[in-house]
User: Fold this.
Amino acid sequence: MKTRSSLLLVTIVFAALFALWGCPKKAEVTATPEPQQQEMTETSDADKAAEAARRAAEEAEAKARAEAEERERAAAAAAAGLKPVYFDFDRSVIREDARSIMKENAQWLKDSPTVKVRIEGNCDERGTIEYNQALGQRRAAAAKKYLTDLGIAGSRISLISYGKEKPVCKESTEECWQQNRRAELVTQ
Assistant:
C-alpha cells in the first residue's frame, strides 16, 4: 500500500506541476497616468499642425520657384528669338497671323542648326484636364509639322502638352484665355 500511496502522491505532484506550467503567466501592466496621455495628444496635435504648416510653406516655395523658372524660360526663349504662336478656341490649326511668326522661328532654327527645341502645347482653363491635354498635344504637333514643312529636322523638335496647367494669365476673360491658347518653343 505504501507504493500505491507513493505512486498517488507522485501522480498528484506531476499533475499539479503540469497544471501550473500550463497556466498563463502574469502580464506586466504599465499604466500611464491620464494627464500624461493628454499631454502626448496635445503635443501630437501641435506636431501635426507644425508639420502641416511646414508642408504648406514648402509647397508655396516650390510654386514660387516654378513660376520664377517659367518666367526665366520665357525670357530665354524670347532672347533666343523664338516666339509663341496662338490658337483659336478649341482649334489646333496654325492661324494666318501665326504663320509669319512660325517662319521667323524656322529661320532662327536654321541659323542655329545645333539647337534643339521643345514645343509646349497649352490651353485655356475651359474644358476638362484630359481634353485640354489632348488639345495641347495637337497644338504642339501642328507647330512641329509646320516647322518640319519649312525644313527643320523633326529630330530637333520634341513635344509636350501642359493642357491648362501652365497659364500665363489667370483671369477668366477672353483676352486672358487667348494668351493661354498657345504653343511655345523652348530651347533645350
Summary: The chain has a mean pLDDT of 84.
